[in-house]
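Narrative of activities, Objective 1.

The group set out to show that a structural description can be obtained from nothing but a protein's sequence at a throughput compatible with the screening campaign. Below is one input-output pair from the validation batch, recorded exactly as produced.
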Amino acid sequence: MTATSATIQEIKIAHSPDSDDAFMFYGLATNKVRVPGYKFTHTLTDIETLNQRAIHDPYYDVTAISFHAYPYMQDTYTLMACGGSVGEGYGPMVVSPRKLSHADLKKTRIAVPGTLTTAYLTLKLFCRRLRPSPCPSTRSSPQSLRASSTPASSSTRASSPTATTAWSRRSTSASGGASRPASRCPWAATPSAAPLGKDAMRITTNALRDSIQHALDNREQALAYAMQFARDLDPALADKFVGMYVNERTLNYGEDGREAIRKLLEMGFDRGIIPVKAKVDFVD
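Output recorded for this entry:
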């Protein structure tokens, strides 16, 4: 946080260039949502870069990260209670030119969007023995798979249930019961830096929530703004993509959503994938 004058404080925000993130921050980025005494500046870069920077060089006051990365930075950042992507019955999937069995996954080199992404964590939980190949693109996709020599790709987000998605839905349910699949799959988070102080963290969290609500209330304008960051998505697909990941859950995870986040990270720790036990708290 930087004091730009006696009364104005700068909050440095970083998030991915994905259209859903741009949609969420539309209100703040365009000054449609203002907070007296605060100035918000925005940096856009890919999620794995943000994961790594938040761990090794925590420069930003507010930064988008993968939930998977949170345990590594929990002494520096605290999770906001809004701004994350929670899939309602959908999530990452493995994309391949041919059908792959669970046994095939163990022998197949798979492109992943980053080893700290939640897509990678859920894939490791589903299939412990993997041959990952970090993909330099910001989001693994069928298009990037066709452009490379990698046999399969783990996509950060997907609209269709797959074996991996169905498993993650069951496994992150609040009750943990496999007979009652959960519709909550947490994929990305927006944490706030602890050095801001409790009051500034709360004000900043409320500002982001107001920005999300403003985008939902002014969908056409917010989507038009987000389209400049949509990259390979056509307008109809971008609209669907934003609708999947910016919704009521983005405004408030709810108790079951918070429990799904805790359970996902607990599973990662129990299986030896995450070496640090997560202490999950939220700024409301």
